[in-house]
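tool_call predict_complex ligand=5'-deoxyadenosine
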Amino acid sequence: QTAREMIQEIKCRRDISIEQLEYLLTTENKDCLEMLREEAVQTAQKIYGNQVFIRGLIEFTNYCKNDCYYCGIRRSNHCADRYRLTKEEILSCTDTGYKLGFRTFVLQGGEDPYFTDERICELVSEIRQKHPDCAITLSIGEKSKESYQRYFDAGADRYLLRHETANGTHYRRLHPDELSLEHRKQCLWDLKEIGYQVGCGFMVGSPGQTTETLYEDLQFIRKLMPHMVGIGPFIPQKDTPFAREPAGTMEQTLRLLSIIRLIHPHVLLPATTALGTIHPKGRELGIQSGANVVMPNLSPVDVRDKYKLYDNKICTGDEAAECRFCMENRMKSIGYQVVVSRGDYI
Ligand code: 5AD
Ligand code: FES
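tool_result ok
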């Protein structure tokens, strides 16, 4: 099979074999890699044109009851400088964001018991009332189906919960025993059943990841058919058990973005902050590999550098407006237009 035939086959079947995956992740054949990227970009453009959607990310708490080995805000990290935003501070972020043209807000935080269902619902319904034309995305971890239903009824419409890896053994390498892959997957199915637009995803190059585990990730994506898939390189954080593990690479992340675009053409696929962190042009290259979403930060500048999932995170000193216009210019520079809309799945 030639490289061209392989890429056409993946595109037509919307599936990939483990051998094809192995080849695409390891080949140094420049023509093949170029073809992969071009096919992914064409696929995205056929559906979404040259538009890139922006989401305003509000990191509203870095308290977390979990202890994931990779994450800088894990409960055992006593170096983390903890903060939580008040409801007023969060609403002021969405106001600022609205004026800057954001029509989607992503409320992301650690699993912080202070934010009870009641507090989350109150927050969501106030944002919903103030901005009826906006999409409200939650990214606050594993909850019961009842809780997810309550947030949904309060006005949340999307939920991001990366599955992290679809392989049970790999999942246990990344998390303490108190967390389980089965429960995490169940959460994603529950969210979907309730009617959320759902996003799963994983880190590229996390310790213990192999072609086999990535293959399982792709098969899980094919089965779940999420509206969004978030992937970015693993980046070690110095106060975690994975401090000395090597980071994932930009090259692997870009290849996987293209592959995901080919097997799931309509998916909303962000060029993540982590990708922008490992390379100054990471986000642009992500878009040029098939991504179609960027998520600039709207969190207040005085807490930005505290939401440290990994080291050297970008944009920690920039105001919301700076990131907004920076992003617009970055996208313009590669021929894309940032759009002011909810940016729904087509
Ligand atoms: N490097 C890259 N991504 C990370 N995340 C958490 N820690 C790291 C890290 N060290 C990702 C996880 C999580 C998302 C919010 O951030 O995939 O789901
Ligand atoms: Fe934040 Fe460029 S996107 S400064």
